[in-house]
Amino acid sequence: MASSDASLDAKATPNITPSDAVLHVHSARLIDAPATTVWDVLIDTSTWPSWNTFVPRVTIREQPGSNPTADTPLSPVLQQGTKMTFHVHMDPSSSSEQDVPLVVATLTPPDVATGQPGRIVWTNDETASGAIPGWLLRAERVHEVEEVEVADTDGRVQTRTEVRNWEAQVGYLVYVVRWMYASTLKRNFESWVGDLQQYVERTRQA
């Protein structure tokens, strides 16, 4: 059963409840591809320039257990503990970027055999140079990837992968963010899942 907009609006992040959130943004999309295919694209940031108009570029700053050299750069694939900087395009038609330092707090791949959805949680990296203190703004974002059964217009049940994501923000600065960017963030969250759907389905057909 695919998630409803209302059910996503009521979802907590690991440390922020919906009632505490000053700003809560979410989106979801059904993709005609296996969960593992969608997951592999989502966690491989080297693919993002090809589909992600909201965050077309990511700088991986640290990977757990890695000692990067000129010959062995850091892997672009997210893992638990990855420290990264999103180069965010609030206006996808503009080249202007906002740098947002983040850390992957949780990463669990989907398990189709047990029905467990894949889950990524990232949050502010307050250890990064120039990071906003958590008491001013703390954001947590959850991504889930899960195979679900949906009925088509003829009543036939088909398996699709649902990608759902939601973000909660707290802190004094979030009131400004909500006032200035709430509608923009909502639009960009919708673009994120829509871009991912188009890319995955297009590459499967190629």
From TrEMBL:
<dbReference type="InterPro" id="IPR023393">
    <property type="entry name" value="START-like_dom_sf"/>
</dbReference>
<dbReference type="InterPro" id="IPR019587">
    <property type="entry name" value="Polyketide_cyclase/dehydratase"/>
</dbReference>
<dbReference type="Pfam" id="PF10604">
    <property type="entry name" value="Polyketide_cyc2"/>
</dbReference>
<protein>
    <recommendedName>
        <fullName>Coenzyme Q-binding protein COQ10 START domain-containing protein</fullName>
    </recommendedName>
</protein>
